[in-house]
Design goal:
The protein is an alpha+beta fold and 239 residues long. The protein is built from seven helices and seven strands. A five-stranded mixed beta sheet has the order 1-6-7-3-2, sandwiched between helices.
Length: 239
């Protein structure tokens, strides 16, 4: 931690220090302030085993095609964090998007997904390719660079249990089957995991999505499933 500086100056070159706290950090919550107060050099980048332990339940028997099942998300997702300087860039950029587009959701729909409407074509989840789009996570967490973090966006809802703030068993099976077909057939199943944020943790509401992480997948496969997508964090560039 950097105790000598306010959180909004940490990891910022002295010749770029603002006079006061930037508008995009005025409402930063306690968790974000704690992360932003950490020097990038002191931040621990999570390894694949650590990410797997954090997110997964266990590896279980699958269909005969695979030896193991993609790891399924546990309720410890709030522990996934961004590198401090990346969090700062994320908060600055999303604040700008809200001003320009009204909300992050509007930007995602218009620019990233390019979906004019959210009515699904299929009668059942994952039954129509047009109802699904796989993109990079635009602002990845502080994890090993060999881990590819993707987001699977869907026009259809994934059934959840409001009382548990989690997916229903039926929805988990549906996601399992899709992840197995799409990723487990091309990547070592032990190098695939998925998770879905609790409703209370979602940064983007009203557009259904879940996350997939792949450890050291073939670049050509990632390019294929994302149709050549590039994450916003790379397009925007380092500050």
């Amino acid at each position: 931690m950097s105790d000598k500086l306010p959180f909004w100056l940490v990891n910022v070159p002295e010749n770029q220090w603002p006079v006061g706290c930037p508008d995009f950090l005025l409402n930063a919550n306690i968790k974000d302030q704690r992360i932003l107060s950490t020097l990038d050099g002191d931040y621990h980048v999570m390894t694949w085993p650590e990410v797997t332990e954090l997110i997964s339940i266990h590896a279980a028997a699958l269909q005969p095609l695979f030896n193991s099942q993609p790891h399924i998300g546990l309720n410890r997702l709030d522990q996934l964090q961004r590198v401090p300087s990346d969090l700062r860039r994320y908060l600055e950029y999303t604040t700008r998007l809200k001003k320009e587009y009204g909300s992050v959701m509007n930007f995602v729909l218009k620019k990233r997904l390019q979906w004019a409407e959210l009515k699904p074509k299929g009668n059942a989840p994952f039954s129509e390719a047009e109802d699904i789009k796989i993109l990079y996570n635009d602002w990845p967490y502080g994890i090993d660079s060999k881990i590819v973090h993707l987001v699977v966006w869907t026009k259809f809802d994934l059934e959840d249990d409001p009382a548990a703030d989690d997916l229903t068993p039926k929805a988990r099976r549906e996601i399992d089957d899709y992840v197995n077909r799409t990723f487990g057939s091309r990547v070592n199943p032990d190098h695939v995991l998925w998770f879905k944020n609790w409703r209370s943790l979602k940064s983007i509401h009203a557009v259904e999505h879940f996350h997939v992480m792949l450890y050291n997948p073939p670049p050509e496969f990632v390019k294929e499933v994302t149709h050549g997508d590039v994450p916003l964090s790379e397009k925007v560039g380092k500050a």
